[in-house]
User: What shape does this take?
Amino acid sequence: MIINNTTIKEAFQSFSTVFNKAFQEMENQYPRVAMEVPSETRDETYAWLGAVPSMREWIGDREAKNLSAYGYTIKNKDFELTVSVPRNDLEDDCIGVYKPMFQDLAYNARRHSDKLVFSLFPRGFTEKCFDGKPFFCESHAPAVEGKNAKPQSNKGTYKLTPESYGAARSQMMCLVDDQGEVMFIVPDLLVVSPQKEAVGRTILMANEIHQEVNIYKGTAELLVVPQLAASPEQWFLLCTKRPVKPFIFQNRRKPQIVAKDDPSDDNVFFKKEYIYGVDSRCNAGYGLWQLAFGSTGEADMPAAKA
Assistant: This one.
């Protein structure tokens, strides 16, 4: 193949087609646990988190609630992934050889949003959310002093068992808002590491456990997350059916493929390489802590509590 501006352009179009097709055909997991929020600037502030009140009987004048009780900001970050193709391979018409590489490039670009969101899970025991406390914390305080709500917990330490699962489920359904009213939270997704898949399946799918009827069968779906393999004992219970989700994926610019393939570019002139890359701007953060329960899984549940 004779290398000129036309053939270089055709090569890039071919690589772009392969990349875009593979990117569109893949599905992400993060929409199950995170709400996607489009971003128009370098960062976004979520002042309304935790401050939306419940309906009340209209007696007298309306009572306007302050939706700026909190200030939680997620800053967008830049991400990139770059590969190179030797000029000789284009001259020898070896474009098809690189099809799997650009498909894998699309795979990694698509999976990056999942990586950002699910990396929040183990970090949630230390990183803070909108109320200034760690996302998984034993002492989340109400937004306004003097209200009925007392400090509440969405954190546990017990290993995943039917008993600890049931306790976490009850704990989430009993959470109240700043007005002291029940939030009607019903957990529906159990998130575990690959090492705990069998335990999770037993709790949610088995007809019997220890020769007794499994009362928790079908109470939630199971999601096994490979990223949790480094923290195998941790497990999480989420409420994901509401418009607001436990986590936030903030999208400033979707992944797009670009090229550095002009004959006058240094990489072509000195190294005989065409460079192709993918870049994006985005980030992930924490939504409502009330919609998630996390356990470190480090302790056995006492028999009395079980």
